[in-house]
Every structure is written in C-alpha cells, then in structure tokens.
Amino acid sequence: MNKKSYPRAKKSLGQNFLHDAGIQSKILSLIESESPSSILEIGCGTGCITKHLIKLDCPVLGVELDQDLQLNLEDVLSSSKNNLIMDSILNISEEEILTNLDKEYLIIGNLPYYITTPILEQLLLKYNKWSVLYIMVQKEVGQRIYAKPKTKQYSRLSLMCQYYAKAKKVIDVKRGCFQPAPNVDSMFVRLERKKTLPSLEVTKTLFKVSKIAFSQRRKMAFNIIKKTMDETILEKAFEAAILLKTIRPEAIELQQWITMAEKIVELEGHVLS
Hints:
Helicase, Ruva Protein, domain 3
C-alpha cells in the first residue's frame, strides 16, 4: 500500500499512518532481533507493520479501534494462530490478552498522542507478563520516558517507566514519515520489563508519594509531602535515602524514591494512605 492509497485518517482517533518504508524496515528488524514467542500489536492501522509481523512465525494479536479498518486487518490476520480485537487497549484486560498469547509476549504500538500516558500506565501497572515493549510516541514524550533526574524532561512519567522497565530511545522519526504528517516529530522507544520489583506495599507508597511531590515539581519535595503524612516518619525516610530537605522532586534518583518508600512502609507498618 503506497502513501496515496492510505485511508483517510480520523483526527478523532489521533491517527497518523506510518508510510516510510525505511522506518518500517528498521522497526521490523528490531522486532525480529527479539525472537518473540508471541506479539501484541496496539493500533494496527492499515496493517503495514502487521503484514510483516505475521511472517515471524509466532502468534500475533492485533488491537484496533477503527471499525473501518476491520475487514483489511481480518484478512491480514486470517491465520488460525492470529487474532484481532476491535476495541481500545484501555478496555482490554491482560487476562484477555493471555487467552491469545504466551507469557513473555512482545508489545509493539503506534500510540495516539492524546492518550499515550493512559496507555503506558495500563501497560506498566496493569499488564505484567510482557517482556519487551516497543512504542512510537511523540518525541517530547519519548524524551521524558528515558530522561534522567536533574533534567527538565524528568517527570513522574520518567519515574514510572524506569521503575518498571529499562528504557531507551531506538529511532528518531520525522513527522514526514507519517500520513497525514503530525505537527511534531516522533520517537520509537524500547522498554524491557524488569523481572523483579520491590513489594506491592512499597510500590504503592512510592507512587503515592511521588504523585504528591511531582504535583509541584519546582518546590522542595519534603515541604510538599509533609502536608500528607507524619513529618517525623518523612524525616527518617529522607535520612534513609540520603536526601536533603531542600531537594526538588525532579532531582531525586529512582533508588532514593525506593529507599524512601521502603522506610515509610517500615515505620508506618502499612501503605501510605
């Protein structure tokens, strides 16, 4: 399918179809190098990537919301080992995914810019059986995903992504590679899910505390968080993480967030309410 024959993209669905053959080839080489046992593709669109994924001889589950693309995708995914779900990924549980795919499945997705963060939260917080995630996102969002502390890009999204996975940029993608061309450039990012994480109690506390702190990221983290919990416990948590009370949320390292949350759980004896 060439650029001119693409269906009309729907602005309401945030559609931008990737038509650049060079970028498609690079993406497919990356996926093939992972030797996936099964693949979940989010946002199949016209099937330009899908038709190559099925050649990797492993089950492919496609997820697409646009009903006008259903017939073409059903044809592409017609083999009995493949399947298609016509719905938003936000409405699909991982249990449903695992009725079609093996555990340790690979995810690839071209995410609509306007719901990138909710989809990432779903994949990181609610899906835990995948091994590697490749996503096409707005360049600014991609920079935030792998940003380091003490940079202007570092945010709660950075913390969330790096808590659950090892993240890195793999391809810069110019806006002209899409039809229609978006107003910004994109980035293809790889996240490899971490196999071990702190306890559920520590995880919940970490994200409660960080959400509070990043709500005013330019202010001192201690002064923001102390309004919501026992100040003495918070002081001990900061001491355990070797943090000054004057530090801002954007300067706190991942391991320091973890240490802080572990100390709070230890002293409070329960998840921070």
